[in-house]
Amino acid sequence: MSTPPVRILFVCMGNICRSPAGEGVLAKMVAESGLSDRIQIDSAGTLGMHAGNAPDSRMHAAAANRGYDLTSRARQVTAADLDEFDLVLVMDRDNERNVLKLVKTDSQRERVRLFCTFCEKHMEHEVPDPYYGQSQGFEYVLDLLEDGCSGVLAWAQEKVS
Fold it and tell me: With the CA atoms of 7, 12, 15 and 18 taken in that order, what torsion angle do they form, in degrees rounded to the nearest 10?
């Protein structure tokens, strides 16, 4: 009997900038480590206003320049996600508060973590929302995601070994 895959969910507000970028960064790292069949990644937003939309064109371009393919479509996080995913990575405290409103059990609460707790090079507590800023904001978000996703991958590798 094989072990079920580890499932990781990235969550930001609209699911068009930070969380699909996190999904793309980690997906590439997982593929390069040969664990695509053991680690599943998705993303969602705490708001449903962009449901069905592709990632923001500015984030898509910045990610593509670094070799990341952002192909997901925005969706809203659900209460069921808290049971289906082993790790729910929220980008900031507002997202954390909104996701915690869906929590019904201690097990679900333990799965919700601020993404930046996995960062080793950056000392940020939150991944800033680049939506209303300039291109350097999207680049900085990718810097944070690359840093933290290395830690997330190490966490997931431990779970699947």
Answer: -90
Give me the domains of the chain, ranges plus CATH numbers. Answer: 6-152 (3.40.50.2300)
Residue 66 Cα distances to 36, 102, 158, angstroms: 20, 34, 27
Residue-wise pLDDT for 60-100, tens only, equals: 999 999 999 999 999 999 999 999 999 999 999 999 999 99
Torsion on CA atoms 44, 48, 51, 53, rounded to nearest 10: -80
Which residue from 34, 7, 8, 12 is spatially nearest to 128, judged by alpha carbons?
A: 12
How far apart, in Å, are the Cα atoms of 136 and each of 25, 30, 68, 119? 17, 26, 17, 19
- Catalytic positions: 12, 18, 129
| Token pair for 112 | 């919700």
Q: What is the pTM of this model?
A: 0.97
Please report, for residues 16, 41, 68, 122, 160, the alpha-carbon distance to residue 138 in angstroms, rounded to integers and kept in the order given. 12, 21, 13, 15, 31
